[in-house]
Structures are given as C-alpha cells and as structure tokens.
Amino acid sequence: MTATPTTTALALAPARRARAGHSGLMRGFTTPSAIVGIVLIVIIFGAGLLAPLISPYSPTAQGPDAFLPPSGTHWLGTDEYGRDLLSRVIYGARQDLIVGVIAVPIGAVVGTLLGTIGVATKWLDVIIQRFFDVTLAFTGLVMGVTVAAIIGPGLAAVLITVSFVNVPLFGRLARNTVRSLRSRDYVTAARIVGAPPLRVLFRHVLPNALDSLIVQAALSFSLAVFIEGAMSFVGIGVRPPDPSLGSLLRTSITFLSRSPLYAVAPMVVVTALVLAFNLVGDGLNKGLLKR
Amino acid sequence: MPLHMARRMRRSRMLSLATIAVASAVVLTGCTSAVQKAESPDGNSPTKGGILHIVQAADVQPATLFAQNNPNFSLTRTVFNSLIDYNHKDLKPEPELATSWKMSDDGKALTFQLRKGVTFHDGSAFTAADVIASLKAVQRPGVASQTKSVATAISDMQAPNDHEVVITFSQAMSNTMDLFLMTPIIKAAAIDDALAGKSFMGTGPFSVKQYSPGQGFTLERYDDYWKKGAPYLDGVQITVVRDSQSMLSQLKSGQADLAMDLAPLDAASLKDTSGYELELSDANDSVQYIASNVTVPLLSDKRVRQAISYAIDRKRILEQVDGGIGSVASLPWAESSPAYDKSLVDHFARDLAKSKQLLEEADAVGKSVNIYYDAGFQPNTGIAQIAQFDLTQVGLKPNLIPLQASDFLDKLRTGGFDGMFLTGHGFGQLNPATLVKGAFPFNADANASSFDNAEYKQLANELWLSNGVPSKATLDKMNSFLLDQQFVSDLVLSTHTFAISSKVKGLSETMLDYLDLDSTYIQK
Amino acid sequence: MFRYTLRRLPSAVVVLFVASVVIFFILRLAPGDPAAALAGPDASTATVQAIRHQLGLDQPLITQYLIWLRGILSGDLGNSYILHAPIAQLISESLMNTTELAIGALVFAIVGGGLIGYFQGIAKRRASQATLSALTSFGIAIPTYVTGVLLILLFAVGWRVLPAGGIGPGIRDFSLGWQYLLMPAIALSLPTGATIARFLSASMRQTLDQDFVQTGIAKGIRPSRLMIGHVVPNSLPPVLTVLGIQIGQLFGGAIIVETIFAWPGIGQLLLQAVTGRDYLLTQDLLLIAVLVFIVVQLITDIVDAAMDPRIRLERA
User: Fold this and answer.
1) DSSP string for A111-162
2) How far is B391 from B501, CA to CA, in rounded Å?
3) Binning pLDDT at 50, 70 and 90, where does residue A133 land?
4) Which of the four pLDDT bands, split at 50, 70 and 90, describes residue C59?
C-alpha cells in the first residue's frame, strides 16, 4: 500500500478507534447475559446445523403410529402422522438458522449501503429516506402477508420478508451513525486533504459504524426468528412437510388436549432463541456503552 | 309429510330409479345419523321457542345462492324453499313448493303444480312467476350453479295460471330433477338483491332480520310458514367464527348449539364427549381427491396415474386426517347414487408392488412432480403430506405447493396446475350426470385435469341424455373408464358434519347438505 | 414552526402517492382472482367472466387504479368484493375490535409492567434485581404466538376456565365479554409490559441518583411518599415516549394474537382480504396503514423540530 505520510497519519486515528471499538465489543461478549445467550445459540443452532447427523429420524418419515407418548425410541413422541417430534423440532431450528444466516446479512448489506450512499448524495438521500419510510410502514407480518401473496407461501417468502424488514433498520442506523461520524475530526481532516468522498466514507467512516451495526445484527437475528415463526404460524411460511417451529406450534393447537407435549418443545426452543439473541444484543450494548 | 301427497307423487311415475341404495351404513360408533334422529325423536314432544345459535367458519356467499357452496348450508333451506326435496335413500323427489309434477314420456316437458297459499316473508303470494324468474336467473352466465347445464337446456317456460308451470327442455336428461332440488325459489323482484346480499326474500321457515356481512345472520321465525306448526324455534343466530378450535370452544361453553363442519379431527374428538353429538349429513358428498393435469408429460401416461392411486394409503388418510369419519373410496359415488358399486370401493387398496411396477413400466421412477393444494382448508394440508410421503415411497419425487384459495380456485378453473392437485368435490350423491356435467374435476367438457377425451365425452353424454336413470351397462362402463383413466383419484368419501349440543333435537338436512330446521327444537 | 410543517407536507403526499401505486400494482402481481373465489366451486369460465365484469376487473389496470384513486379522494373506500359490505364499515367494525383488544392489553401492560418496573427500580438486593430483570428480558423475548398457545394450554385445555377463542359478546355484554378478552389481551400485553418495566426501572434508578432525592431523604420525607410523589413522576418522561411507540406496535402485533384467538380485528380482516384477493379492501387497508405511519412520522419530526431549532434550519 502506497500512502503519503499525511494519509497514514490520518488513518491511524480511525484504526486506534476501531481497536477501542472491538475491545468494547469483546467486553460486551463477555457480559453474563451475552454468555448465556451465546451458549443457547450455540446449542440450538449447533443442533440445527448438525441436524442430518444428530436427529434420530428423518423429520418427514411417516407411519401409522400417530401420537405416541414420549419414550426411549421417540424422546418427544410422535405427531399426527407418526413423525418423530424431536427430529422435527431439530430440523425446525435449522430453518431459523437458514433464515438468519441468509436474510439478515442481505438486509444488513443492502440497508447499510443505501443508508451510507444517501449521506453522500443529497437527492438520493431524499428518495432513500422515503423508501425506508414506506418499508417501515409495513410491520413484519404485514410485509410477510404481502410477499406470500405474490410469490406464494414458502421459505423464499420468509427470506425476502426478513431481508426487506431489515433494510430500513440497518439503513437508518448506518445513516445516523455515518452522519454523526462525518463531523468528527479525522473525517473532516481526510476530506480537507482531498480524499474522494466515497473513499472517505468506506475507508474511514463505515468501519467505525460497525459496532452499532453488530449490535443491530444481534437484534435482527432475534427478529428473524420471530418473523419466521409468525409467518409459519399463520401458514405463509415454511411449506409442509418441512417442519418449522412456527408451524409445529400452529399444528399443536389442534391437539392440545390430546397431546400437550406437542406444543411445549417448539415453544421452549423458539423462545430460547429469541431470548438468546436479545441477551447478546443487550450484552454488546452494555460493553460498548462502558467504553 | 302427509301420506296422500307421497302417494300422488309415486303415481306421477317420475324418474323411477333403477337401483335403490340401502340405508346408509356410514354411521360411526358414537355418531348419530341426522335422518335417524329426525325420524325417531326421543318420545318427548317438541319444545317450542328458543334461539338456535349456529357457528360456521365462513360467511354466507349470497352470489352463489343458486349453487351448492358450503358457507350457504345454514341459510339456503332455512330462508328459502325449492320446488322439491329428495328422499335420502333412493333420490325419489318429494313435494316442497311443488305439490305434484308430471313428466312427458319423451322426458322433454315437465309440468309442476305449485302449492297454494304460500307467501314470501313480505306477505306477498308465491306464484309461478317467481319460479320462472328464479330458473331464469340460473340460466344467466354470471350466476353459478352445478345444474346449469340442465337450466340452459330449458327452451321454454310457461305459466298457464299462477299455480302451474310448464317447462320444456330441448332434450331429455337423466338429472333434470336435480335442478329443481338445487334451485331455491326467490321472490322474482328480489333476485338481484339476494345475489348482491341486500335482501333475502324467500318462503322458508325463517326470515332474515339482520345480515352483518362477515359476521353473520339473525333469522326470525316466519309465522305464516306454509308448513303448519313449523318451525318450533323462535329464531336462528348464525355467527361466523373463522377457526374450528374456537367453534368447538363456543359449542362446549354453551355459546353455540350447532357448529357447522368442524375440522375433521375436532369433530371426531366429540365422539367421546357426553353432552354433545356429531351428526353426519346423509348426503355423504364430501369426497377428497388428488388429480393430475394430463398434459404434463409425466402424468400423460395413465399407468403413472394408476400407480399414484395404488401408492396412496387411503386408510391412513381416513384415520389420521378425517378422524375416521367416512370411508375409503375409489370412485366418486355415494351409496345413494345409482352408480354406486360396493365391489369397486376398494379397487385402489394400497399396493406398493403394483405401483412400483407400473412406474417402472412407464419409466417414471425418480421423476419429480408438483402437488398443489388449497392450504386454506386444514385437511388438505394433511392429505397432501400423506400423499407426498407415500409417493416418495414408490420412487417419485413429489413437491408440495400450498396455494391460497383464490389462487387455487383460479388455477382449478383454468387448468393452470403444472402437476397434480388435491382438494375436494361433491355431487357423488345425486344423479351421476350432475357430476360429469357440473362438478369441476369431472366435467367432461372442460376440467382442471385438461382431460379432453372423446370417449369420456361420449360416455358422459350417454349418461346425461338418457330419459330416466341410465342403464346399469352405461353406469358400469363409466365406472371402469374412470378407474382405468384415473385423471381424478378419489381417496376418501367423507361427509359434512353438524356438531350439536345434545339438547338440539330433530335436526335434518337435504341431499345437498342444506340445514332443514323445520322440525328442530331445543329440549329444555 | 408552521412553515416547517408546511414544508414537510409535500414529501408526505408524495410518499402516500407512491405507496398507493406500489400497493395497487404489487397486489395485481399476485396470482389468483377474487372472481374465482366469489363464483364458488364448480363455476364455469363464463360465470367468472361475468363476475369480473360486474366488479370492473376486466377494465385496464390504469383505469381501475384511477377509479380507486378517485373514490378515495372523494372519501369513498368502495365495497368489499367478498364480504359485500362497504369497506368503511368493515374497517371501522374490525378496528373497534382491535382497539378493544389493544386497550385491554395496554391496561395489563401499564399495570403489570409498571409494578414490576417500580419494584425493579427500588430493589436493593442483587438477587431480586436480577430476578426481575430476567423476568423482563423474558417478557420481551417470548413471542406472542408462544404466549397465546401457552395460555390456551393452561386456561382453556388444562384448567377449563376461559374460552379458547372468539370475541364473544364483546363490549355489548362485558360481564361475559371480558372472559374472551382476558387471554388475548394478556398475550398481547407481555412485550409492551416488559418494555415499560425495563424503561421505568432504568429511569427510576437515574432519578434516585439525583440530588433532590438525597435532599428529600435528608429532610426526612417518608420514603413511600418520596417515591410516589417525586421519584416516579420524575422518571416517567422516557417511559411515556416508549409507550407511544409501543401503542403502535400493539396494533402491529395484534395480527398474530387475533389469529390465535380468532379475534375479528383489523389483522384478521387484512389476512382475509389478501387471501381472498379482495383487492379494494386490501388496497384500502394497506394505504391506511401507510397513512397512519406517515402521520406519526410527521408528528414526531415536527415535535423534534419544535424542540431542536438546528433540525429546522438544517432541513430548510
């Protein structure tokens, strides 16, 4: 990298700040609540990731033995079509893993880009802001209902919905953070020495906005789990016969009196997941604030 | 019904039915047949008064009053009457607004004598003009009816006097009377208002006091109802409760006395609950099926369609999805139908070896196929999942695609499925011609399977254009054709259900599943 | 101030207009046909075509859009295809039901969340603080569909004391109606209540650190009087702000609770409208949602501007 002494000197400032930021994040990750959250996430998403290896049966294998009570062969019993409930819960967690890993980053990247670009160009900013307004006006499930009506219910509808919901969240956050950072000394200095605005933005400003974006990512994961569950619950999410925590819960209502346990496992897992990501988000926030 | 009327009817020698189905045997342990209950009230004299609270999952659809449409079951026969009713066992017509009728020997001219002294709820007299206007409404292109093909075959209608209608048809048809069973008679001047949901002017036992779209109906006893002494009830409250579980809970909490068509497993759960009863409609016309678009390469081979039919475990669907309500089926006919053949019911008993062999012959192993279903109706989701699993077992790769009702119905009508589709049909209980001319999956002229087959059209016409009940030979030919072609695979012959509190007595329904509350009462 | 408001208006109108275009055309992209649903089973193509003609669905899309726009501008929301009733009436009826639910939930949230927040705010022992804090974290995290099913399991299936769903007689006969309201209102109130608790306790802790409290203690004012009379009122502003946001979210979250408990509210109406491709009803509902959001945004912006002159100048 060939850099003039001036830019090197300037680059030092953000670098140091970035380190400070990361240690703030580190502090956040080691708060008790974040540790509890991370452990829960590792357990549940670990199970989802390794589902083909650890789940005792195929989640879609049916049989005549419907509503078997929990036993050594079926730890959680079987469902109305004789499928192993434990396997279905594990594969259900896998759906959330897929949604979180794919849709949240898409929403984050698109949102951050849009929010950041807006800061640089004023007329674009106006358009993008209005776009965020309209997107925000649709709450998660209203957006989900609309998307599912157009492309049909399914995992794809969930992915699109979660991505869309996240765009304005990251977009506004990025915009606000970037705007406040822009008036900081080192950025002003970079602009004065004549660095191109976009370069300043992506090299100096954005890395420093990362902290708050990471906190938002944790909360967005929790939102993703919630929306996937809600869409599948309402019947516009993951398609049968694939299991999802939301659709398991929905189906269980029909059988609450016959087999109350049917509802309990998906309830516990989905709550634990949402809680876990909230805890991580809280922990990170605390860590950053203490800086 | 007074005896002399029944005798007169028999003398008129209408459409004598060749096959007479024996009393329905689909009665489950713990369930009671609606007809049995109506015929043998428990010796107590009926209690007068009271409001019957009905809950149902969907709002009445006034635009389809002339067609059989499930949400209208609670309204059509309570507010309106039709000209005739059917005997539930042999489909012999019985008098309603018509007291007698005579069909010419060539089957093309039908004369109805109308009941005198009948008034609409606004007090005006019921006359031949109302009958003619209602039938004309069915002929309109914008009005739905499964017996439309009969209505459009009417070439002339005359009213020699206020109480006589002469109807001329361009051809003799085997299902002519189905039209008059299905068509409610609406006051001539109020037909458009009825189809638009603005007013409901009929001659039935109850008048509409209030209609709140999306929420329900308040019905009031019509004191001048032509059937003297009926009804016993003071009124009926119909409430839309969109969820089966909520309907069940309203029934159990005493908020409702009757729940229309609970989800099958909810309905089945009442079998063991004292204080409640599950009445099964005698019509037995709720058939669940899976069908193929025969223009899709894979499904154009009838061996593949037969293999699919052999692969699906109908017994498991009956148990796990329908809670045991109904019976397995290979053909669309209910026992009341002249086409019903007990020996063919198990034709497609599950046979995996045969299924696999057929698939191998057709070189279809490992091929993938889409299965569309209407996800708005819970049992479809269950049947779809069982079918998907069973087809996987014989080496196909089925892919389930849930659709929303408006999308599904649209594709059903236009044949827009690029694979298989799964839903329900009715009309196995009436004259067979109504099914092959009016019920969508089987309609020989245009059906969702895009099954455009000259032999089928000819068979359907043979069935339809017979003067009186088609011959056994014709019906047998049709049955073996349907079994062989399998563009529609019937799976389970179920029925509509009425879950009631045990206090409700004397409930009855027509062969179209329309609630008949003429002799219903609530025991104190 | 007035001039600032005036300046923001055109942009709000533009957003609304763009939203109306997007809503209208996106909805028409969805496969399906309201006429097919209306015609019922076994209907012929001729029947469906005739219904399409009656509904005006056979006209060019642009014409249909302009007719819709003209209707809205003249204050006529039109009629629902499927429910055969004026849309204004349908919306106001279901909005009433949702409001009943939201008010019920709000009462639980304020009372429950307020109490927990208060005790968490004054809690001295670490253990009780941690317990209450865990409780609020849990309350925020637990999805409404989990709470709903759990409540049904407990109170409608296990211990049969409450009806599992429906609105019952509603407010017309509240002696019965409250039994129907109880479970959905509690399910809906949980996240809001927990949020209130969290903000109240945090705000109270800050207030407790302030000088006037120490002075009060020094002057010997009774602790309970000091709390109720001084600390709590001084801690309320941030709670009220968050409450404003939460009320909006209550209406958004109602859609799930309404589904679980078959509550005939605005969320159910929307689900039904979209599923049945009841175009006019869906368009009106979505546009109203956007309108409400824009108005709230506008008010927020204006309040912000009123309090901070820099915003007014910068955006000039």
Assistant:
1) HHHHHHHHHH-HHHHHHHHHHHHHHHHS-HHHHHHHHHHHH-SSHHHHHHHH
2) 41
3) confident
4) very high
Task: Name the burial class of residue B312, with classes exposed (0-12), middle (13-18) and buried (19+) by CB atoms within 10 angstroms of its CB.
Answer: buried
Residue C180 contacts residue C168 (beta carbons within 8 Å) = yes
Domains (range + CATH), chain A: 3-62+73-289 (1.10.3720.10)
Answer whether the bond into residue B141 is a cis peptide, omega within 30°. Answer: no
Asked whether residue A282 carries a pLDDT value surpassing 50, the answer given is yes
Per residue in A206-251, pLDDT tens? 777 788 888 899 999 999 999 999 999 988 999 989 999 999 998 8
Task: Give the model's confidence band at A14: pLDDT under 50 very low, under 70 low, under 90 confident, else very high.
Answer: very low
Taking the C-alpha atoms of residue B233 and residue C268, their distance in angstroms, rounded to an integer, is 33
| A145 closest CB neighbour out of C137, C274, C292 | C274
Please indicate, yes or no, whether residues C70 and C98 belong to a single structural domain of this protein.
no
CATH number at residue C111: 1.10.3720.10
Structure token pair of residue A65: 């033995």
Residues of B in contact with A254 (CB under 8 A): 244-245, 263, 265-266, 378
Token pair belonging to A94: 């896998």
Mean pLDDT over residues A202-206, rounded?
74
Q: Are strands B368-374 and B397-403 parallel, antiparallel or unpaired?
A: parallel
Interface probe, candidates C131, C256, C296, chain A, greatest A C-beta count within 10 A? C256
* In a shared domain, residues C14 and C57: yes
Q: What is the pLDDT of residue C166?
A: 75
- Name the band, by pLDDT with cuts 50, 70 and 90, for residue C167: confident
Interface probe for C, chosen from B143, B253, B255 (most Cβ of C below 10 Å), is: B253
Q: Are residues C151 and C257 in the same domain?
A: yes
Res B12 pLDDT > 90:
no
CB contacts, 8 Å: B400 with chain A: 239-241
pLDDT at C316: 41
Q: How far is Cα C209 from Cα C204, in angstroms, rounded to an integer? A: 9
Residue of A nearest to C259 (CA): A234
- Domains of chain B and any CATH numbers: 17-34+64-193+503-522 (3.90.76.10), 286-494 (3.10.105.10)
Rg over alpha carbons for chain B, rounded to the nearest Å, is 23
Q: Is residue C314 part of a domain?
A: no
C162 shares its domain with C213: yes
Residue C315 counted as domain residue: no
Cβ(B308)–Cβ(B330) below 8 Å: no
pLDDT band at A9 (very low <50, low <70, confident <90, very high): very low
Whether residues C97 and C203 share a domain: the answer is: yes
End-to-end CA separation in angstroms for chain B: 26
The answer to whether residue C84 is domain-embedded is no
Instruction: Collect all residues of chain A within an 8 Å Cβ-Cβ radius of residue C292.
Output: 137
Highest mean pLDDT among A92-101, A138-147, B33-42, B207-216: A92-101
Residue C15 identity:
V
Q: How far apart are CA A167 and CA A143, in angstroms?
A: 13
Q: What is the pTM of this model?
A: 0.86
| Partner-chain residue, chosen from B196, B411, B439, that has the shortest CB–CB distance to C42 | B439
CB–CB contact C256 A142 (8 Å):
no
Domain assignment of residue C132, given as a range: 93-277
Residue B371: how many CB atoms within 10 A of its CB? 24
Residue B41 has pLDDT above 70, yes or no: no
Closest CA relative to residue B64, chosen from C269, C30, C84: C84
Examine the domain organization and report whether C46 and C150 are in the same domain: no
Task: Please check whether residue C291 lies inside any domain of the structure.
Answer: no
> What is the ipTM, given to two decimal places?
0.84
